[in-house]
Amino acid sequence: MAALELKQQLRLSQQLIMTPQLQQAIKLLQLSRLELLETISQELEANPLLEEVQEEMAEAGDLTDGEGADALAADGEVPAQEAFQEVEVIEKVREDFDWEGYLDEYSSGSPVVVETDPNKEWPSFDSKLSLPASLEDHLTWQLRMSHMTDFEKQIGVHIIGNLNRDGYLDATVEEIAEAVKARVEDVVAVLERIQVFEPMGVAARDLQECLLIQARNLNPPNELVVEILRNHLQFLESKNYAALVRALKRSSPEVKAAVELILKLDPRPGRAFSDDSVEYVSPDLYVIKVDGEYVILLNEDGMPKLRVSSYYKEALSGDQVLPTDAKDYIHGKLKAAAWLIKSIHQRQRTLYRVAHSIVKLQQDFFDNGVAHLKPMVLRDVAEDVGMHESTISRVTANKYMHTTHGIFELKYFFNSSINSVLGDAVASESVKERIRQLIKEENPSKPFSDQDIVGILEKENISIARRTVAKYREVLGILPSSKRRKASWG
C-alpha cells in the first residue's frame, strides 16, 4: 500500500479574471445609445460623487475631448469660468407712442383663471394620456352591450381571449367548450354572433371563413362573391382568372367586378387594433462628406457630461476627520465614478475607430449605394483596428449609422459573399438589392420566376442557385411569380 505524502509544486499559469470594472466596460460597450443614457441616469442617482456638467461649463471647455476627459476622471477638477461682461439693455419708448391703441388691442383678451389653492392635487401627466383600444377591449365592450345571457357572455370571453393579433381564433370550439363546461353547439352559436362584431370577420378559423363572413354581409348582397370564395378560391389564389370565368360560366366583366370586391375585403381584421408602434432610431454616428472626404461625427446630443464631485474630494483631502466607514464609502464611489467616466470615453473612442474602419473598407457603398456593398466579416475590421472579433461584435450591436443612403445598423455592413462567374466575390446584400430591382422593373403580366432571375444574374457575372434566390426573395417579403402575375381576363 502506497504511503500518502504532501509535496509543494510551483506552477505558472495564466487566468483571465473578470473584475467588476472590466464587466462594466464590456457592458457599456454593447449598450445602445438610449440604453447608455438610461445607465448614466441610474449611475447619477446611485453615486453621489458623480455630477453632470452644465451646458455653459461644457461650452467653456470642460470634457471636450478624450484627453480632457481622462484628466477629469483622474482629478475631477473643473476649470474656472471666465468672467463675462454684463450687457446693459436700454429700452427707450418714443414720445409719440399710441398708448391708447396699445391698451385697446391687448387688454381685450379672455380672462385668466389662476388656481390659488396650493394644496389642491392636480391629475398627473400620465393620467391625461390615452391608450388606443385593443382588439380584446373593443370586442369585450360589444359583448357586454349584446343581448346574451351571462353564460353566453362567459363563452364569449373565452373566445375573445383566444384570438391572435390578426383576429383569428387560435383554439378549437371543442377546447373552448371543455374549458367553460358547455356544449359545442352553444360555443358555435356564440362564435357566429361574435364573428359579425366590428371588425367584421373577426374570430374566424381560417382565411376562407373570414372572407365569407364579410361577403355574406355585403350591402347590397353579391352571391357571385360568395360563390367564388366558397368553391373557387384556388383560382383566386393563383390569379387564374380565365379558368375562374370558365368555371363560373359568367361574363368576364361580372367576374372581374366580383374579384375587385373580394380584394377590398380585409383578410386580417384584427390588425387595425394592433398595438405595434413605430420605433424611431436615433443614430449613434453621422457620416458626412466634406471636400471629397468622409467625416465621422459621434451623436453627443443629449449625452450628459460627467465629472467627479470636487466637494467629496476636498472632504477626503481636507483637514477634517472623517469616520473610517465614511472614508471607505467615498473612496469606493470615487473609484466607481472615475472608472465610469473613463469607460464611457473608451466606448466612444472604440465606436469611432470601428466606424472609421467600416467607412474605409466600404467606401464604394458610401459613394454609390447598396449595390456596391462589399463582402465583409468581423475579422476584417478587427485586423484593421487591432482588436478582437468579440469586441467588434459588441461595438456594432444595436448601433446605427446615418449616411446619405439612409440609416443602417452597423451589423448591416457585415455580410457574406457570393462568388461571381469571374471568380470575384459579391456581397449578399448587393445581390438582394439587385433581386429587388429586377422584380420592381419586371413586366407585371409576365413576372420573373426564380430561375429567370438566376439566368439574369448569371449574365451579370453573379453565380447563384435558384433556392438561394427563393430564400432572398422570401427575406425581402416578395411573393413568388405565380402570385405576382397581373390579372388576365382572357
What does this structure look like?
With 490 residues, this protein is of the alpha+beta class. It folds into 3 domains: 20-71 and 282-415, no CATH class; 135-273, RNA polymerase sigma-54 factor, core-binding domain (Arc Repressor Mutant, subunit A, Orthogonal Bundle); 418-484, Orthogonal Bundle (Arc Repressor Mutant, subunit A), CATH 1.10.10. The chain has 23 helices and 8 strands. It has helices at residues 20-29, 33-46, 55-59, 66-75, 99-106, 135-145, 150-161, 173-180, 184-194, 207-216, 223-231, 233-237, 241-248, 252-263, 310-317, 324-361, 363-368, 378-385, 389-396, 428-440, 450-459, 466-475, 481-484; strands at residues 50-53, 285-290, 293-298, 305-308, 400-403, 406-409, 417-419, 425-427. The strands form 3 sheets. The chain has a 4-stranded mixed sheet, with helices on one face. A two-stranded antiparallel sheet has the order 1-4. A two-stranded antiparallel ribbon has the order 7-8. A hairpin with a 2-residue loop joins strand 2 (285-290) and strand 3 (293-298). The longest helix is centred in the C-terminal third of the chain and has 38 residues, at 324-361. It is extended and about 100 Å long. The termini are far apart.
